[in-house]
Amino acid sequence: MTHSPARLAPGRLLLLALLLCPLVSCGGLPTQATVPAAKAGNNSEPGSKATATQGPGSTAPAPAASAASAAAAAPAAAPVVAAPPAVVLGPPTAFDMDRPEIRTFIDDVVGRTGLERQGVIAVLSQGMRQPRILEAMSRPAERVSPWWQYRARFLTEQRIREGAQFWREHRQRLEAIEAQTGVPAAYIVSIIGVETFYGRITGSFRVLDALMTLGFDYPPRAEFFRGELEQFLLLAREEAVDPLAALGSYAGAMGAPQFIPSSYRRFAVDGGGDGSRNLFRDWDDVVASVANYFKVHGWQRGAPVLAEAQADPELMATLDPRNLTPNATVASLQSRGVRLDRDDLPAGLPALLMPAELENQPNVRVGFPNFVVITRYNRSIRYAMAVHDLAQALTTRLAEPVATVAAQ
Fold first, then answer.
1. CB within 8 A of 79, min separation 6: which ones?
2. Does the annotation count 195 as an active-site position?
3. What does 86-143 look like in DSSP terms, one character per residue?
């Protein structure tokens, strides 16, 4: 990972102390924070963030559009609703802390969580409204790419090569987590590769700015993002994350696995045993947290993920690419003429028949419960198929002789 770990610098300890007031002795603390206001710079998504994915979550775009990335891949996102009118771009501006909705938010958070009012105000007063975030969220949805085009964006030589190298470098921790959780190393590495190119491109908006901008100035999903802002304040208290320095996607997703604050608090784990959950710079925690997310959502050790298949054109024409529910079984699909590329599957295994368009013809694939688990990370069958295919490509590459790999 290449950006700031977002842990608290000495000058920021006052803010954390204020947030912690109900839990520690706060005698003698000043009534106002003295942290300088955030600068308007350091807020642009890198143009190379073509690593993300497409779907209704909170962190990742179709690879060609970095802005969509922040709105699509993080776990546990809210339903997408119609976007507001186009936004007029301008420079970042401070929030008016006397706005009724901000005052109400502060009252509610303090009442629910026990966070110190002065600390909450001190942090929120440093937030900056970012018009570029609103512009990105308000763009019309891009044309949905056919599967063969979508796949090509992720199954690149660079992503496979760097993923195999990442796997080699982290083999010991990956093998330990796979043994513990049953989640294969290949899928853990693939998720990190799809989300942030193995921790290299994790977003450059301040999380505070993103969540305040969307929570107070993006009506279609204001309630959701205000909830994430509250979760972020709690996360800052629990994990000593600097709320003024933490960077992420334009929807507030953080770290190599791109967890939004609620997912960070719920699913991140202390993989290294040091007493903290640091998704910004601790690879033990990152690897363990991705695996834990899969495990909590129902990953089955050793169970199949996906099968190639053939089906009649009439059946393929009825498929809805938005459906993420395995509403058939292996036996029921076979009774409808679907032909799978393997014969070792239980007849009663839940199955999802999915469109997977090739360049010159329609095509289908069949996903099983473990495939559905991947869609919980980003609610898109194309995303989940890309993760699966990258995992397979990484497994194949890792098995090749090192001399052969070096020549590629």
1. 56
2. yes
3. PPPP---EE--TT-HHHHHHHHHHHHHH---HHHHHHHHTT-EE-HHHHHHHHSPPPP
Closest CA to 392 of 190, 94, 96: 190
Give the single-character DSSP code of 45.
P
pLDDT digit string, tens, across residues 266-285: 999 999 999 999 999 999 99
How far apart are the C-alpha atoms of 254 and 75, rounded to whole Å? 11
What is the DSSP code string of 305-371? -EEEEE--HHHHTT--TT--S--EEHHHHHHTT-EES-S-S-TT-EEEEEE---SSS--EEEE-HHH
Q: What is the pLDDT of residues 8-30, one digit of tens each?
A: 554 455 555 556 554 333 433 22
Query: Residue 139's pLDDT is what?
Result: 78
Query: Do 209 and 187 touch, CB atoms closer than 8 A?
Result: no
The pLDDT of 189-202, averaged and rounded, is 97
Helix H or strand E encompassing 177: helix 171-181
Count the neighbouring beta carbons within 10 Å of the beta carbon of residue 39.
Answer: 10
Gap between the Cα atoms of 292 and 268, Å rounded: 7
- As given in the structure block, the two tokens for residue 322 are 């938005």
In this model, does residue 335 exceed pLDDT 60? yes
Task: Identify the active-site residue in 116, 178, 195, 357.
Answer: 195
Residue 249 gets the label, from left (phi > 0), alpha (psi -120 to 50) or beta, of: beta
pLDDT band at residue 148, thresholds of 50, 70 and 90? Answer: very high
Q: Which of 363, 390, 375 is nearest to 164 (CA)?
A: 390
Which residues, 6+ apart, have CB-to-CB distance to 57 below 8 Å?
71, 72, 73, 74, 75, 76, 77, 377, 378, 379
Full-model pTM? 0.81
C-alpha gyration radius of the chain = 22
Would you call 279 helix, strand, or coil by DSSP?
Answer: coil
User: What pLDDT score does 7 carry?
Assistant: 52
Given a contact cutoff of 8 angstroms between Cβ atoms, the answer to whether 253 and 246 are in contact is no
Closest by CA position to 60, among listed 219, 196, 156, 190: 196
Average pLDDT of the chain to the nearest whole number: 83
